[in-house]
């Protein structure tokens, strides 16, 4: 008997019962998705009340009245975010080192801190800081820095819980040989950790830490619960106040645009950093 040689399968894969190869099926499925998306866009464009949308969401007069003051609110939002982020980095690093400590109580404290401040809503943490701490510690009723200290503490502790786990993962990602080499040169554990391991860990976790900055920037909208004044108002509260006064949603759209001015470049930066790290690997 002579052995028969099987015919080569076509480039797109062998056809199934329908006579179509897997690649052809995939292409047809993709075009169906495009068609559904296009249909949804057309339906939205046809049935939307564009005159009312322009009147209530894109009112030029309301936008002109909002824009001059929106930059003050944006500046406040940036200040709140930077203060909270700076505190979060410092506390997060300490908690991360406690989680990696060989001392049991340190590890337990770090774990409890992370679980509490990651498990509770940021809004609740801000309320506890603003109204709970002054009751428990009367001297905190008027802390140095006033509301800026309360915001930094409330948002910073929440950010620290997330950043601690990110930094811990970065430290553990540094090859153990780095620590062993530093110790063999006579460095103490603390010095090797501070000068060798932690700098490398931060280079690894820069993208997720930058992403946490974006999240804190958006979480700053919760500051309204602290009863900020007109000069301390952040973007969301500012847009809501002006929208109520003008009976128009356009100020909220302006505030949303101000958020995007910050978050879109930061998101682009995160993607670039992640792509650079991927190439380095």
Automatic annotation (TrEMBL):
Listed name of the protein: Amino acid ABC transporter permease
Subcellular location: Cell membrane
Signal peptide from the UniProt entry: none
Major localisation: membrane
Annotated Pfam families: BPD_transp_1
Topology of the protein relative to the lipid bilayer: Multi-pass membrane protein
Protein family per UniProt: Belongs to the binding-protein-dependent transport system permease family.
SUPFAM superfamilies the UniProt entry points to: MetI-like (SSF161098)
Annotated spans, Disordered: 1-22
Superkingdom, natural source: Bacteria
Transmembrane region(s): 31-48, 78-97, 109-135, 147-167, 188-206, 252-271
InterPro entries reported for this sequence: AA_ABC_transptr_permease_3TM, ArtM/GltK/GlnP/TcyL/YhdX-like, MetI-like, MetI-like_sf
Domain ABC transmembrane type-1: 74-270
Keywords: Amino-acid transport, Cell membrane, Membrane, Transmembrane, Transmembrane helix, Transport
Species of origin: Actinomadura keratinilytica
